[in-house]
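Bench notes, bay 3.
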Amino acid sequence: MVAGCGAKCAKFLLFAANFAVFVVGVILIATGASALAQADKYSYMFGDENTLQAAAGMTIGVGIIIFMVGFTGCCGACKQSVCLLKIYFALILLVIVLEIIAAILAFVYKDTVTEVARTQMEKAIATDYTGIENNVATESIDRVQEEFMCCGADSIADWSNSSWAKNESLAAPASCCMDPTVAMCNKGQPGMPTDNTAMYTEGCIDTFTDWVKGNYLKIGGVSIGLLLIEILALILTCCLIKAVEGEGE
């Protein structure tokens, strides 16, 4: 058994740190799953570059790895196994490296979210929106406009040049209405509602991309908290390994 107050404290603190790693692993999995569900919900808006979906999937994967790493650390701390502790140290170090790489990639590609979302929404409004149910573009744009309380990509005026407007004598789809249950809430000329107070007029791009970036911040916040715990765990693991090896000499 490990002797000395310092070594015992290191063992206890390492066990506590690994319990925290367990908890953070679960939080990462839950956060990633929530973000993944939202990413799937708005998949059309991301086109072929669903960066939120990729980040969410990576978060779930890291959460599962962290959960297993935490178990290894707890076993190593309880059994005072130098082999398990060294494996644990290597795994934690690997996870830290992966998190740093992921953070760099997120920073590099953060602006693509706005660009891709804008391209997809402008394309949908200009040519793909039909107003008919079971149409992917229609359902996606309606969902974004209803849930984010906005209209068009940059403003309601975007609907004036849409293919949908050629067949409608309305300002914009009913999904732009503040209260879609009100009859003819979207009356007016394409892009120019008769009653501005009955419809959302601001565009969706800024609101949507702020929401996406907010999800990134949630993932990032949890990851930073995990990183601090991991660094502490590395230090405590070194102390415990040194104490166990010192006892065996």
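Next record in the batch:
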Amino acid sequence: MHASTSRRPAALLARLASAPRGRRGFFHSFDLPSALQSRDFFLHSCCLLLGTSHSPRRRLPSHPWCSPARPSKFLEIKFGFYGEVLGAQIADYLLEKSRLVRQSDGERNFHVLYYLLSGADKGLLERLQLGDTLQYHYLRGGLKGVTRDQAIDVDAAAFKVEFEDLVGCMQKIGFSQEDLDNVFVVLAAILHIGNIEFTKSDSDTAVLGDGTALDKVVGLIGASLEDLKFSMVSFTTITRGEAVRTDYTVDQAEDNRDAMAKALYGALFSWIVQKVNDLLKPKGKAYDDALARAGGVTEAGILDIFGFE
């Protein structure tokens, strides 16, 4: 299925399920957020919030969540006997994490990073110690010494609207303010990790440069400063019961830094998918009644794989 259109059958199913009782089914009262019954829920949850970015291969669609560079996923919607939506579940398969740390000419990083910088209020930006988009290595193509505007193509006004839309959608689904704050902290920490720089020592090993970015990461995620410093420039192996430290070269340290950022982003993405599934899984009296009835629960699955066009 074309990646940019999988939201349409999901939206259609939701709208058919909400039609008056009859051949199209109707909604019972059930313990799910009202967002599950709306087209907006499927537009946003199908795109999985953090997993989309802009690619120059095709013109950016009118809805910025629906760009070609996005995760593969499987959406399963469960219906009751009369066609009412009982719940949904999303499985994510592939997330293009490499795009987080490096982008080709004309490509952007994941949308949510620009939305956060353009849409968050001054107080939130100060708490996250965030500034202008051009300050962040991962938003400059992931290349050294690059400050090209064409690689970023920032539309601050549009991104601000999308940020508000994103926050509203997550709140409607059931994310708490604490959940949102944690998401923003991790995203900010990732941007600061990308700004950690290294220099070459006399022995050709990596040495941490200006510690400003590292201090910001520690302040946000509460990690040990000494442990983080050590893990940025070296690793330990155990040989015959003895710990042996190996120092990275500058190139190895940069690869290690980028791997850490990608791991954080991947973990955050998986957590959001799990959170969405926990909030939208079938439950309540309507689901119990449907299970007790022969043929009371049916399923419709939509497989969305990017690049299959």
